[in-house]
Protein: TetR/AcrR family transcriptional regulator
Organism: Floccifex porci
Amino acid sequence: MKNTKQKILNVSLDLFSIYGFEATSMSKIANTIGIRKASLYSHFESKQAILNEIIDEILEYYDKKSNFVNTDWNTVDVPENVDEIVKKIQEQIQFILHDPYISKARKMLVIEQFNNPILSKLQTKQNYIDVLNYFTEFIQLLIQKDILIEEDATIMASQFCLPITVWINLCDREPERENEVMEQICKHIEQFFKVYKKG
Amino acid sequence: MKNTKQKILNVSLDLFSIYGFEATSMSKIANTIGIRKASLYSHFESKQAILNEIIDEILEYYDKKSNFVNTDWNTVDVPENVDEIVKKIQEQIQFILHDPYISKARKMLVIEQFNNPILSKLQTKQNYIDVLNYFTEFIQLLIQKDILIEEDATIMASQFCLPITVWINLCDREPERENEVMEQICKHIEQFFKVYKKG
DNA sequence: CCTACCGATCGGTAGG
DNA sequence: CCTACCGATCGGTAGG
């Protein structure tokens, strides 16, 4: 029962993240699971209700798993060493890139961003504002610690994290480019610290 | 006749760029123009044929209008003054952002990038590779002219143009943010030149 | 450009 | 969870 309900949610997100909500039919969802379309309505009262519950799941998962909203920079001990910082950030990128739930949610938000106002706002929050705020605080801390030079922290954060969001989107679209992209990311981070490092 | 055919192409791109190809129906296209669905088939043999012709138009328009593939850097006189460079780039961004054809094409490619292999490749080419190559050559030239310091030109170009592509996407999604975004872009470009300027 | 129609599929319901 | 069904709409065709 609960198993089937979860299967419906998972399969629906799979399909929504590739084809979009409208272009995914209830039959397609049902067939993918191996049940009849009518049976979906034992678990959800409508197609919209499936999407609503997926959105709830995304919000919940995000609040639980995302560093971007959960980090208390006062308690985090930031490594002083640039190599260590690069390593930490690479790990974060690998997680965001491959966590099956996060990556599918991200793709769905990209697809639905122009026709669903709720998902549009969510896309801006999760994949722009929260990320930018996180890295702005991170860079402010590095400036305070005299690791980076004192410039506009928001602009520095933009230059740091926005190229990475483009590369993540590129990997979502063409996963075969991942190695090439990770190399670019690595070079980019090193270059960033080289140019903004104090002294 | 030809007028109606062009109307069909325009209206279809309008709708495809918001809802996507699959989720846009032939009736919706016809009703938006004010004709009957069956009449569409006097101009196009199928819904797919409309998309194919739109893709051809995008390719043609892009080849004709895009700086990113048409610039011969040997003949372009790059302004030495950073303020002049900032101004030129802002003009380019304004054009890309508001040209009705380019902006709709860009939105459609974003929406269709995960389920249509042709549009997926086109998205990577037009909105990543060509842009990055263009700015890599631009920065190489500025390095040659002793305006910028000598670092990896591709990485510098990434740091320069990829944040801007994110901001353009943000404006596509939330046009009311345009002023705020243009301010960020301006600060970003100035910061970039401040940090990479020679001497 | 239209009316009238096709079979297939859409989201959803009844009833078991 | 199923079969059987609903009206509406899908992409597309015939014929004028």
In short: The mean pLDDT of chain B is 95. Residues 4, 35-36, 38-39, 42 of chain B lie near DNA strand C (CB under 10 Å from a C1'). The first helix of chain B runs from residue 2 to 19. The radius of gyration of chain B is 20 Å.
